[in-house]
Amino acid sequence: MGHFDFREFSIDDGGCGMKLGTDSVLLGAWFFREHTQARSVLDIGAGSGILSLMAAQLCPAAGITGVEIDSAAASAAGANFQASPWASRLEVVNADINTFGSTGAYQLIVSNPPYYSNGAVSTDDSRAGARHQNSLTFGNLLEAVGRLIAADGCFAMVTPPDAEADILFAAELSRLYLRRLCRVATTPARPCRRLLWEFSRSAPGRVLEQTLLLRDASGQPSREYSSLVDGFYLRIH
What we know:
Elements: E1 3-5, E2 10-12, H1 22-32, E3 40-44, H2 50-58, E4 63-68, H3 71-82, E5 90-94, E6 106-111, H4 125-131, H5 138-148, E7 149-159, H6 164-173, E8 177-185, E9 192-200, E10 208-213, H7 223-229
Parallel strand pairs: 3-4, 3-6, 4-5, 6-7, 8-10
Antiparallel strand pairs: 1-2, 7-9, 8-9
């Protein structure tokens, strides 16, 4: 069990298969800063609720729904939502996104999805579900997004770099167009370790591609990374 204090909220990830990490914080800061006027947000695979809480902080007019298939994680997210300053704008639904129904379309959809399609699977069912694509493949995820996103909506997710070709193909099938792609590397000497994606319903004139280094050549947090996450972490390290 871990308790983490951020600038404006706290997270307890007890009961969550995937513990809180930097990927979600990077994704939320990178995505929501560009869409602060959004009025509806869907967090797919909400886990402890970190992305939903970041949306609540950066999008002050938004109602936010977190969908989480694991009941223990959904309970943890609900408790974190209730303890936050934005409890009235946050809700968690314990459901499978593949069968999740909604009466409306969402302006923003975000997900830190399961990464792994092969390799050793944890004997802990909740951890296995959070890490491996047992019930939510990239194809399933993008299909659900295509069903739930508003005509003017945007969707963002974080993935490993080796999934790039598969994701672009699945996005095309769901009629989602790439708007932004950020390649994240730890240092200038290291290869890309994560991809941050943003898709929309309408084709952009040009795809914006960038590289984000978490640390500079001296090993200190880079200026770009520090600026991105400064509103969330109490101390950047």
